[in-house]
Design a protein that fits this description.
alpha/beta; seven-stranded parallel beta sheet; two-stranded parallel ribbon
Amino acid sequence: MQSRKRILVTGGAGFLGSHLCERLVEEGHDVICLDNFFTSQKSNVEHLLSRPNFELIRHDITLPIYLEVDEIYNLACPAAPCHYQYNPIKTMKTCILGAIHVLGMAKRCRAKVLQASTSEVYGDPEVHPQPETYRGAVNPIGPRACYDEGKRAAETLFMDYYRMHGLRIKIVRIFNTYGPRMHPFDGRVVSNFIRQALQGEPITIFGDGSQTRSFCYRDDMVEGIIRMMESPDDFIGPVNLGNPEEISVRELAEVVLELTGSKSPIVYGPLPPDDPVQRRPDISLAKSRLGWQPKVSLRDGLQRTIDWFRSINLSDYRPPTPNYGPPWVPSRPQ
């Protein structure tokens, strides 16, 4: 095994974070999982609590915390539109203050730190597929801006700490990811379609369904994130991680109906403001510098995800916010 490291994963009890923690624990590292459990589930990491090299801390990364670590994976932030729009000011704080706090810790500990950024930095793209050199088309005053601009600002902070303090940083831009442990009520298209299909509810498509997305299975994404962290220090990114296989939302609904055997009808609603028409990563850089590309096909990944959804009890999961349906009408936080 490689040398044992002390690794902090913020947002470590979330969908991707829990799988990342699991992988790092299995590799023998001392892993600290930090999460405030806003959109995550403690059950995601419950099986790790008995492991001597795993520690769970309930904490909000918008507040300072002092730990001694060798590496930091900064994954903390709600990623589904209906949840990050529920409290947009808190989302912006999580992106910016969270980045400041993990960067300050990395500076003090001389740790390497990875920022989990997003394809949303490209906004509703005018370039297709999206390479890392594309600067994006983001509406800075729209309902998605708290997340889009928050993640863009976090990238800015990472680059400024790199230039001013010589921090060892890594930036990955994560495209749509799915798989077991997705929150059933996260409001995203894969979880929505599967949950609706299994419950015999209408499959809800917003818009006419011609908008495209690219879906990467969770195991492929975790592999890409770890490869980026372990890459040479002179390669800081940003680097796109995602599946370049593009599919329309309508086609995705039809595949889910086929794989579940559901008779649910498809219904249509109005498209949310600033919803991207196209989303597909150019992963040439990840291929050349990380030797990485997705291996799990969409149908295989969806079948594994559907099997997991069949195995859980939906009553064990609470919707993190009241508005896990249409993402453009967020409820006012109480």
